[in-house]
Design brief:
The chain is built from four helices and two strands. By secondary structure, the protein is mostly helical. It has a two-stranded antiparallel ribbon.
Length: 102
């Protein structure tokens, strides 16, 4: 998954504040600009970012709509997981009550 890597998550977080070049995105990391470029390619392939051309500059942009769709999808599964954990908590509490009665 595109956001499984912490570098890619950091890149997305940075791009949420505005466009940036590969060099600007590479600054906080102890990895090469080539490595950052590969991370950007993964994000592009996932549809989360795009690149444009501004003279010699090639800024990277976050596709906010794609990120919103991804967030909605994650939230759906988060709610399902939370519901299952609540049910498990209830079962464990019930079982603990039965154990104390014995």
């Amino acid at each position: 998954m595109a956001l499984a890597d912490p570098v890619r998550r950091a890149i997305v977080a940075r791009l949420s504040r505005g466009e940036a070049t590969v060099n600007e995105l590479a600054e906080p990391f102890a990895i090469s600009t080539q490595a950052v470029s590969k991370h950007i390619q993964v994000l592009e392939h996932a549809g989360l970012v795009t690149r444009s051309r501004d003279a010699q500059r090639r800024p990277v942009h976050l596709d906010a709509a794609a990120l919103e769709r991804l967030t909605s999808w994650i939230d759906k599964y988060r709610l399902i997981a939370e519901r299952r954990f609540r049910l498990l908590d209830e079962l464990l509490a019930e079982d603990a009550g039965k154990t104390k009665e014995k």
